[in-house]
Amino acid sequence: xxxxxxxxxxxxxxxxxxxxxxxxxxxxxxxxxxxxxxxxxxxxxxxxxxxxxxxxxxxxxxxxxxxxxxxxxxxxxxxxxxxxxxxxxxxxxxxxxxxxxxxx
Amino acid sequence: xxxxxxxxxxxxxxxxxxxxxxxxxxxxxxxxxxxxxxxxxxxxxxxxxxxxxxxxxxxxxxxxxxxxxxxxxxxxxxxxxxxxxxxxxxxxxxxxxxxxxxxx
Lengths: 104, 104
Hints:
The structure is a homodimer.
Chain A: E1 2-9, H1 15-29, E2 35-43, E3 49-56, H2 61-66, H3 69-78, E4 87-95
Antiparallel strand pairs in A: 1-3, 1-4, 2-3
Helix pairs in contact in A: 1-3
């Protein structure tokens, strides 16, 4: 499967609103059949920095995610909250095996 | 919960042995009650680069993990495979809620 780590830095005054909007998006994204995980984590040493850990079940799933209403809402909501452009890294998942990346 | 992302770069000739040793360690680590996740992912654009995504259920779990025989074996096995020192980032998990980070 494909894992995408999205590195995000937000303006200090936007942290709370960013977390709220991103939790909503994560909750809706987990209902997409192509998405196994959509985790949000916050740096211990810098609460303005986050990583979204997205795991997709197939190659077409990221494009389908970007066509959803919840993605568009999130993208537009957080656009002005960014302190720097988002940077993504793409990975192949090696462990655990695909069936164990989500509980459904 | 605490998430730790360990960034790892290995020597090209060590990739296969590193993956084997790290899968063994991940499998054993998931049996520790304090560990919710122990994922291994490999960079799409550079197969010598990996991230271990470790999620701990409590503050004492990382120290208990480092006392296990499987951690010691992994640490000693991969020591000479590193192309650069390992670099860790620590995070607070924000989403999903703690009970949903593992399937047990």
